[in-house]
Amino acid sequence: MKLERRSVFGWGATAAGHAPCDRGLVIHYDSGNLGLHAKDHSACRTYWKNTRRFHMGPSRGWADLGYAFGVCPHGIVMEGRGAKRAQAAQPGGNTTWTSCTLMTGPAEDITPAAIEGVRQLRAWLRTNHGLGTGVRGHRDFISTSCPGDKAYALVRNGTFSKPPGSGGVEDDLIGLSKGSKGEGVEAVQEMVRLAGHGKALGRGGVDGIYGPGTAEGVRLCRKDVGSAAKAGYGDKITGHALAQLIAAVGKHQGGK
């Protein structure tokens, strides 16, 4: 992971207080289209400095840049408040989740490098700072367009939940079945949760183990979007089952 610490920007230690921030990663974006993907990385550094200046200025008055981390279109991770620090990013989750903003706007595609940067950041936080498995969008906490439809689609379909170096989400999810384990299963379980059937997962929740609860959650999701959903319809992730699972998430989230 290419990580640029606060010292790169001439900043000292953050004034933000310590907090667990261990439930998972929350994805954000910028409300304006920035075009940073077509510029030298120095423009990303300037953007990060300006964002901090704005957050600490008279219109916000925050103690520091609101986010824990940022990932630019070139895939470089930039430190904001850093790990395990209270944020000013997602109300209701500023001390329990870790924020990461993408330096893109609503009309801009999320670059493969940025996706890989988020995956690397998440893996690093999980290994070194005890981050949980969850991946959510800012709009999961309050009514907002953030992180934009394009980024939120990647939250919903498990793209950001995959380990570094992975291909598209379908590569790992299709073929998963009862008995499977790992982050691919976590991505399926997270979609079940986002589709409104988290209770089916049982006490284990998003634990990376494809058991009866996960199978039932998948079956219920398929039922939500018109499948006959007979017994066994949640036992394996086929291409059709994955498409229905993604559709179920969209249906549930769109109704909020």
TrEMBL record:
What InterPro entries has UniProt attached to this entry?
Answer: Amidase/PGRP_sf, Amidase_domain, PGBDSf, PGRP
Q: Which GO terms describe its biological process?
A: peptidoglycan catabolic process
* Molecular functions per Gene Ontology: N-acetylmuramoyl-L-alanine amidase activity
Which spans are transmembrane here? none
- Domain of life of the organism encoding this protein: Bacteria
* Ranges of residues in domain N-acetylmuramoyl-L-alanine amidase: 23-148
Pfam families per record: Amidase_2 (PF01510)
Q: Which PANTHER family does the entry link to?
A: PEPTIDOGLYCAN RECOGNITION PROTEIN, PEPTIDOGLYCAN-RECOGNITION PROTEIN LC-RELATED
Name used for this protein in its record: N-acetylmuramoyl-L-alanine amidase domain-containing protein
Instruction: State the organism named in the record.
Output: Nocardiopsis composta
